[in-house]
Amino acid sequence: MNKKKFSFSIPSLSVGLHRFGAMRLPGISRLRVPLPGGVYLGGGKLILVSLSAVALGFLSSMFLLISTGAQEIVWPNPGAVYEAPSFIGAARVDTEQPEIQSQTLQLNLPAGIRLDTVSFKNVSLGKAGLANAFEISGTSTAYIIIDEMIITGGSEFPTMDFANGEIYEFNATSTVEAAGHTVNITMSTSTSAYTIGSTRGAAQYEAEDMVVDRVILKFSSTGDDILIRRLIIDGVKASTGAFDMDYVKIGKLTMSDLKVGDDGDINSADLVVNSSVSITDLSDGIVDKPIFIR
User: Fold this and answer.
1) Cβ neighbours of residue 111 closer than 8 Å, sequence gap 6 or more
2) Do residues 184 and 274 make contact, with C-beta atoms less than 8 angstroms apart?
3) Do residues 113 and 226 touch, judged by C-beta distance below 8 A?
4) Which neighbouring-strand residues pair with 246?
């Protein structure tokens, strides 16, 4: 029995039918689709040659399977807001400069969240037009409570300001140098030596070897205090913008190997601990030096 072969073509699509044919589509490497041999009618064979519509429909369905969604932003990639305990962020637009793509790294802290260690190491900060380079803020009704906070490793900030908080043990060693400083605190015996030991159900956030516009740790709802076992700022350097901390309670704060100053003038304080901060145990070894961070 002689085998007959039918073929046809349309732009960018070619289909050949021969008993069991194969369909080839451009751009899809060696895709082979088996086609029916035909339909028998009264002993004769009717070859279907109108399969181009089927082929086009198949091609269209493949394009529909291609995802068009944006790539997920995963901690610690900047330009995003992360809501603890999630590590998936939402794109952020800076209100100060909405026309420029944000490189802010923001971690929102919902009420009652418990975190283990939040660490920033070897991070470069600073962008013209932004007031703060590193911001930690609770609220007047719900504080960020930190068992131990460490600022060290050659960190640099043009200015530092602590306000509206409590610190049980404040220890600034003689390796802290500032272009003028003021520790105008309220001494108190009512502050708490917070101990946050359990890490059950606690997330941990680490950011290392990065360049970002700024870092924000912010209370994002209303309700219970936030609990953080340890906050480490190690080798974080800002060329412009302030370190600003408000409505935070700390069991122990240690500062060492730190430079602060934006003008080289020791007669104007660039490191300020305000009177709205209550401290029980104070060790102030800060050395005034004409630091000018650029």
Assistant:
1) 142, 219, 221, 222, 223, 224, 225, 226
2) yes
3) yes
4) 137, 163
d(CA 261, CA 294): 9
Q: Peptide bond before 34: cis, by omega within 30 degrees of 0?
A: no
Question: Is the torsion defined by CA of 139, 142, 144, 147 positive or negative?
Answer: positive
Place of tokens 């650029």: 294
What tokens does 223 get? 């309700």
Reading phi first (left if > 0) and then psi (alpha if -120 to 50, else beta), residue 248 is in beta
Q: Which residue has the tokens 């420029």?
A: 100
> Is the Cα dihedral 21, 25, 31, 35 positive or negative?
negative
Q: Read off the amino acid at residue 28.
A: I
The first and second tokens of residue 187, run together, are 């001494």
Residue-wise pLDDT for 15-63, tens only, equals 444 444 444 444 444 445 454 454 444 444 444 444 444 444 444 444 4
**Which amino acid is residue 214, in one-letter code?**
R
Task: Return the half-sphere exposure (C-beta side, CA atoms, 13 A cut-off) of residue 65.
Answer: 6
Separation CA 178–CA 156 (nearest Å): 10
Is the backbone peptide bond immediately before 78 cis, with ω within 30 degrees of 0? Answer: no
Asked if the bond preceding 36 is cis, omega within 30° of 0, the reply is: no
pLDDT, mean of residues 96-104: 86
DSSP state of 292: B
